[in-house]
Amino acid sequence: DLCKGINGLEKIVLREARGCSAEVYLYGGHVTSWKNDHGEELLFVSNKAIFKPPKAIRGGIPICFPQFSNFGPLEQHGFARNKFWSIDTDPPPFPTNSTSKAFVDLILKPSDEDSKIWPHSYEFRLRVALGPGGDLMLTSRIRNTNTDGKPFSFTFAYHTYFSVSDISEVRVEGLETLDYLDNLKERERFTEQGDAITFESEVDKIYLSTPTKIAILDHEKKRTFVLRKDGLPDAVVWNPWDRKAKAMADFGDDEYKHMLCVEAAAIEKPITLKPGEEWKGRLELSAVPSSYCSGQ
Ligand code: BG6
Description:
This protein is mainly beta. It has three helices and 20 strands. A hairpin with a 5-residue loop joins strand 1 (2-4) and strand 2. The longest helix has 7 residues, at 241-247. The site of 6-O-phosphono-beta-D-glucopyranose (BG6) has 9 residues, from strand 18.
């Protein structure tokens, strides 16, 4: 269903037979809601989010493309998150194992204006699907359609904001012992020492060469988010904590307690595509009761 969302911006609502749902705004190709079969919201969106171009929506799943953060000359996190995407009415077949009927295909292509900022021609196809069990699946396919024979390179992230009950009760598993770049220390490289990752102050780290599965355990909610990813070797972990929260106009002062970003990404080694080549990056999210996960 295509309908009007906040400020009249168009969104698509996906519903799965058991009652799970998701919402995707054409603005940013941005997932802003993912609910389980009890109607509980699983993603965090700030109460102060500004649903108005050119500001990207604070929360949900912003798409960072063609540049993560300020790792290059473009605006922070690139431009895909504040462009209007279109519905792709005739997508080429997706080689996925998904049996989902609840999905939408979006496409982003550069306008003439965009080409002045990033002088490349591309087709960015995004499929957002709800699996039969309520899993949320995002598949990005980016193709170099340059006719001048030139390759291009990009970095990428699914900047996912998870909703958590209390950040101090949350742990992330799957990143221990890995190397990371610390954004708070001029991107110096460190090795994670802890057993699992817990939170007691601001965190902004890019974990490198991470496993395909990462878990976020929310002790209080007795819920575990499981991220499965493909084509996305890195993982960013971000929580602004109190001081940075106050500095963000579109983020409540105390909201940092109820969110955590774990972002499946390709950052350390940019992706390079020659004309005609396509890259695929896939993220699958599930939310399961913690007891189900223990011992796994
Ligand atoms: C994270 C970055 O991915 O996004 C942080 O690692 C950044 O450094 C955060 O502060 C939010 O970025 P923005 O542009 O959405 O405010």
